[in-house]
Amino acid sequence: MVEEYEKLILDRIDTPGWVTTRGILLDPTGEGAEEDHRQVETAMKNLADKGRVALWLLILQDNAGELLTAARPGLELDRDLEQRGAWATAVRYNPES
Q: Cα-flanking dihedrals φ and ψ of residue 90, to 5°?
């Protein structure tokens, strides 16, 4: 299943350039199965290890949480969201945190 998620992630980052775990699972509320979310995160991390995506944390307003996000390499997601006046901010993912 992780390999299928990897393909889907690569398809989805084409436009607009990034996708969250919820976006892959079509789970806007985040109430889907935890195992599915773990598999998508594993797929994102695998692609990042291969240099195919850059990982970010999407920080939702009003303390609504954080989502692991895969983006096209070179996309500055933090600036992109700021320019769009988005409902979230982003910071580069640091697995050490």
A: -140, 145
